[in-house]
Write a structure and sequence with these properties.
The chain is an alpha/beta fold. The chain contains 12 helices and 7 strands. Helix 1 (14-32) packs across helix 12, helix 5 packs parallel to helix 7 and helix 8 runs antiparallel to helix 9 (174-192).
């Protein structure tokens, strides 16, 4: 069986930098057995440089950094690109134009597919302010999921952004961070009766584990409340590409992408 080589761009999320490669290899080996592992190129970018550029909205610099990493993956014969960060998908449209022969496995498409299959009508989105406010990162894709997408109010969004950037990136103050996550979800349930939540951050998924999700379901008295974990969905799609060459259909295809 032919294995398809992927290029991973990591660095913004310390957790994702480790988890993506590990999980993709585990899924590929579980599927194909033996000593099989995934052919991949991993290019990690300095978190401090990227974070400073995001803080001042310098997306031209971010595009240059991510674009250079994509160039290196392309020269190393990667057949598809995986950006291991929700936030950095803000430059995905520009990268697609730059490397039209090396498709991007877009995290927004993997989430959209899962939400669409759930048939839920009201779903919340959590992440950094850039993810939740910037249409091109995830929201443009989720609009085609069939669900109405709700975001936290300004205060909750600010608190959540602080937790992700200042606590979870460093794996600090985890208990307090979980309290903020739970409170934000609870507010969305109370305000707009969401039926599920998208974790649009790898750090949220790592912090708010299945145990915490089950606890919150009991507290909310919503046993069927669903959690859509962007990193896990993205990793699954990347492993599928390695094994089959298949990429999730873009939610934006034919809609001006």
């Amino acid at each position: 069986m032919k294995l398809h080589k992927i290029g991973l761009i990591t660095g913004l999320s310390p957790k994702a930098s480790f988890v993506y490669g590990q999980k993709i290899n585990q899924l590929v080996n579980r599927r194909l057995g033996g000593l099989t592992s995934a052919p991949m190129v991993i290019n990690s970018i300095d978190l401090a440089t990227i974070s400073a550029a995001i803080d001042v909205g310098n997306w031209d610099k971010i595009l240059t950094l991510i674009g250079n990493a994509a160039d290196e993956a392309y020269l190393a014969n990667a057949e598809a690109l995986v950006i291991c960060s929700n936030t950095l998908h803000g430059v995905a449209p520009m990268l697609s134009a730059r490397h039209h022969t090396m498709p991007i496995i877009h995290i927004g498409d993997t989430i959209t597919q899962a939400v669409k299959e759930s048939q839920l009508r009201r779903v919340g989105l959590l992440g950094t302010e850039e993810v939740t406010m910037n249409q091109c990162v995830i929201l443009d894709h989720l609009h085609y999921s069939g669900a109405t997408i709700y975001r936290p109010d300004a205060k909750d969004m600010q608190d959540l952004d602080h937790v992700i950037v200042h606590n979870l990136y460093k794996s600090e103050n985890m208990t307090a961070s979980r309290a903020v996550i739970a409170r934000t979800i609870q507010h969305l349930v109370e305000q707009v009766q969401i039926q599920g939540i998208v974790f649009g951050s790898t750090e949220l998924e790592g912090c708010f584990t299945k145990t915490h999700q089950d606890t919150l379901r009991r507290q909310l008295k919503l046993p069927d409340f669903q959690f859509f974990k962007s990193m896990s969905l993205h990793v699954d799609a990347a492993a599928e590409f390695v094994c089959t060459g298949s990429i999730p259909q873009s939610a934006l295809k034919g809609r001006g992408e």
